[in-house]
Amino acid sequence: MFQGLRTVIYTAPALAEATAWYTKVLGQPPYFEEPFYVGFNVGGYELGLDPKAVATGPGGACVYWGVDDADEAYDRLIVLGAEANDAVEDVGGGIRVGTVLDPFGNVLGIIENPHFKLPQ
């Protein structure tokens, strides 16, 4: 039975550069770092970087990471070197989403959702 999201893996052929970029974005170093894989703990979920992972391309999954302020997070990602993809927009019910492309071509989604609260 599914227990919930555990790990999202992004392709990172330039692993050292991707590790440095995500360390800045997340404001923390990885908890696991080897030449074949780097893992960050993001609110109890794993953001993984894999130099051998295959990009999903069109029709692939897009993961949205929760943020408190979608506009602020989107702008910060652009300043840190991400490329605009889909601007932040309200999709109803006060939920706001947007996506950027990280410097390695992965779609990185952000979501501000006042209805979603993590269990204590």
Automatic annotation (TrEMBL):
Gene3D superfamilies from the UniProt entry: 2,3-Dihydroxybiphenyl 1,2-Dioxygenase, domain 1 (3.10.180.10)
InterPro entries cross-referenced by the UniProt entry: Glyas_Bleomycin-R_OHBP_Dase, Glyas_Fos-R_dOase_dom, VOC_core
Pfam families for the chain: Glyoxalase
Residue span, VOC domain: 4-113
Protein name in the entry: VOC family protein
